[in-house]
Design brief:
The complex is a heterodimer. Helix content of chain A is 0%, strand content 47%. Chain A has strands at 5-7, 10-13, 19-24, 31-37, 44-50, 53-56, 65-68, 75-79, 88-95, 106-107, 111-115. In chain A, strands 2, 4, 5, 6, 9, 10 and 11 form a seven-stranded mixed beta sheet that branches. In chain A, a hairpin with a 6-residue loop joins strand 4 and strand 5. In chain B, the strands form three sheets. In chain B, strands 2, 5, 6, 10, 11 and 12 form a six-stranded mixed beta sheet that branches. In chain B, strands 3-9-8-7 form a four-stranded antiparallel beta sheet, with no helix packed on it. In chain B, strands 1-4 form a two-stranded antiparallel ribbon. Classes of the chains: A mainly beta, B mainly beta. The A-B interface holds A 3-4, 31, 33, 35, 40-45, 48, 50, 55-56, 59, 91, 93, 98-100, 102-110 and B 4, 6, 32, 36, 41-46, 49, 51, 90, 92, 94, 96-106.
């Protein structure tokens, strides 16, 4: 498809379970972002990739969160030993440019994670 | 660091009425400004953006926003809303030299018949 694709759309995990969330960015887009959107809140930055390089991971809330983009296209956000506070919508966005030229991010529909 | 404050969490209006969604930001460096819209069960979509030049920017569906540097505001306006404008609206900023977006908490616009 032409847009950013995320899978699964919905995920229910038992507390303590590991989860992996996938993002397929728009083909050719250099920049890829992960955001976390808690219920009733705005999205909050988690991490940023430029091609395969993870240039900023300052938003990851704990060392249970890990993201990768090994070939500079598809990215996976992994959460280990999920906790209830991890329940949120996880948004992926991609952009064709970097830095000052990065003026538009295209968002996927998100993965809604519910930890029970 | 930047921050964004959306002053109203919910804005109910009647169809064909004017609306203003307020956004104030704080930043020590130059920023770009954005409004995103999120319809139910859909991803965020860019509505409009201010990069430089004219302080008034417009979208294709009748929304406009004005960048006011002295008041650090970027309010979103529409002179006459439709039922289909019902959605959540997010104001966001990005450092001109940076990459990440910083979002406000969102304003739920509900247009009633």
């Amino acid at each position: 498809g032409a847009g950013v694709s995320q899978s699964p759309r919905y995920k229910v995990a038992k507390r303590g379970q590991d989860v992996a969330l996938r993002c397929d960015p728009i083909s050719g887009h250099v920049s890829l972002f992960w955001y976390q959107q808690a219920l009733g809140q705005g999205p909050e930055f988690l991490t940023y990739f430029q091609n395969e390089a993870q240039l900023d991971k300052s938003g990851l809330p704990s060392d249970r969160f890990f993201a990768e983009r090994p070939e500079g296209s598809v990215s996976t956000l992994k959460i280990q030993r999920t906790q209830q506070e991890d329940s949120a919508v996880y948004l992926c966005a991609s952009s064709p440019d970097t830095g000052p030229l990065n003026t538009e991010a295209f968002f996927g529909q998100g993965t809604r994670l519910t930890v029970v | 660091a930047q921050s964004v404050t959306q002053l109203d969490s919910q804005v109910p209006v009647f169809e064909e009425a004017p609306v203003e969604l307020r956004c104030n930001y704080s930043s020590s460096v130059s920023v770009y400004l954005f409004w995103y819209v999120q319809y139910p069960n859909q991803g965020l979509q860019l509505l409009l953006k201010y990069l430089s030049g004219s302080t008034l920017v417009e979208s294709i569906n009748g929304f406009e926003a004005e960048f006011n540097k002295s008041q650090t505001s970027f309010h979103l306006r529409k002179p006459s809303v439709h039922i289909s404008d019902t959605a959540e609206y997010f104001c966001a900023v990005k450092e001109t030299s940076g990459s990440r977006l910083t979002f406000g908490e969102g304003t739920q616009l509900t247009v009633n018949p």
